[in-house]
Amino acid sequence: MMTAFGAIDILINNAVVRHVAAIESMSAGDWDEDLAVNLSAAFHTIRFALPGMKTRKWGRIINVSSIYGLVGATNRAGYVTTKTALIGLTRAVALETTSYDITCNAVCPGTSATPLHESSLATLCETQSLDRDAAERLLLAGKQPTGRLVAPDGVAALIVSLCSRESRDITGAAIPIDGGWSAM
Description:
Layout: H1 2-5, E1 10-13, H2 28-56, E2 59-64, H3 77-96, E3 102-109, H4 115-128, H5 132-140, H6 152-162, E4 174-177
Parallel strand pairs: 1-2, 2-3, 3-4
């Protein structure tokens, strides 16, 4: 990747898999895949991008964690573990790069408009005769106080802001964008 794209100044780690199962039912293969995709991939891309960033004395690394990096959940041991560890990786890299004008931050979105959630909403609308807004409120009840999905454009805007030169003093942060979920 580094050869194909050349110098990397901004690195966004946003790969994810999620297996839903009680921990005693989760296969070792699913656990290993969670670790590989959600955590090890970020470690390796950071490891390969940092030398060039250090040489140029500038860089921005954004790790897309999750609300589940900040709070626990049942039946998601691999996902919660890796998204929490990604915040730890973020903090370690932030401290190791302070003298190079490189920042490393984690963004922690709540439930957002993804194909998985769109499917759940469609099912709720159909089976309970709800309109879209009512289905969102029901899906998010007890979790996201706004009662609406996090807008992908809002997550993107936060990431763009963190990549600016003006955000050079924000590093090592785990920033929720979760409709108030982490405030509960």
